Recover the amino acids of this structure.
């Protein structure tokens, strides 16, 4: 379906992120957030940047994607309304799947496969399993595999979607049951995952709102934390 603004796309400022290796998302969203309604931006990437679509939609952008070649996708974003995202630099969901950037260092086609697999798993508009439950399942899988970095990220995202302390209490009790007291004491207890869980409980006991707790979580267990970040330091 043709969009009314398509004939304006050649005037959009072009941002080529193909050679960027760090987490460029906050900077890109900051640039986009400064645009007015009726203005646009073109993002060039070596694979289709599907996770970026929802982050830009949170700011009020529509998009149009063109595949120029096997190693060049051009995505035109046009602002149809001004919206404020819940979390600065990431949209309405913290901790975007920035690790996808690492796959393009190996092969652009691999990155394209991975991002489409991610979309199949996490991007469905009407999933049979709700997103919060998926995150808790992924969190548990991460713990079982000893991937506490992944588990911490899923915990932060699950809390953003409304998971309660009571639910987390039961989940962590199951970790003790399934993994054993020794594993919990030596592996889970000292992890960033348990640190994030403790922070949530402590702040809620102090009467902090969910928004205030999320702000602390992102500050302490966001991309700046080397135990949580998926990007090389």
């Amino acid at each position: 379906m043709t969009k009314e603004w398509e004939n304006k796309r050649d005037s959009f400022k072009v941002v080529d992120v193909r050679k960027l290796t760090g987490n460029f998302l906050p900077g890109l969203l900051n640039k986009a957030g400064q645009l007015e309604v009726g203005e646009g931006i073109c993002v060039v990437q070596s694979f289709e940047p599907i996770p970026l679509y929802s982050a830009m939609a949170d700011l009020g952008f529509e998009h149009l994607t063109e595949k120029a070649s096997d190693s060049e996708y051009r995505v035109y974003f046009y602002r149809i309304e001004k919206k404020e995202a819940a979390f600065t630099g990431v949209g309405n969901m913290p901790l975007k799947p920035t690790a996808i950037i690492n796959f393009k260092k190996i092969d652009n086609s691999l990155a394209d496969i991975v991002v489409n697999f991610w979309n199949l798993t996490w991007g469905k508009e009407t999933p049979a399993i709700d997103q919060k439950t998926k995150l808790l399942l992924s969190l548990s899988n991460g713990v079982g595999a000893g991937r506490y970095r992944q588990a911490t990220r899923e915990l932060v995202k699950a809390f953003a979607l409304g998971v309660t302390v009571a639910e987390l209490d039961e989940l962590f009790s199951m970790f003790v049951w399934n993994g054993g007291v020794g594993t919990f004491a030596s592996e889970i207890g000292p992890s960033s995952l348990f640190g994030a869980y403790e922070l949530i409980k402590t702040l809620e006991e102090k009467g902090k709102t969910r928004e205030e707790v999320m702000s602390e979580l992102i500050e302490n267990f966001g991309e700046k934390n080397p135990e949580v970040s998926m990007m090389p330091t």
Strands lie at 13-16, 40-45, 61-69, 72-79.
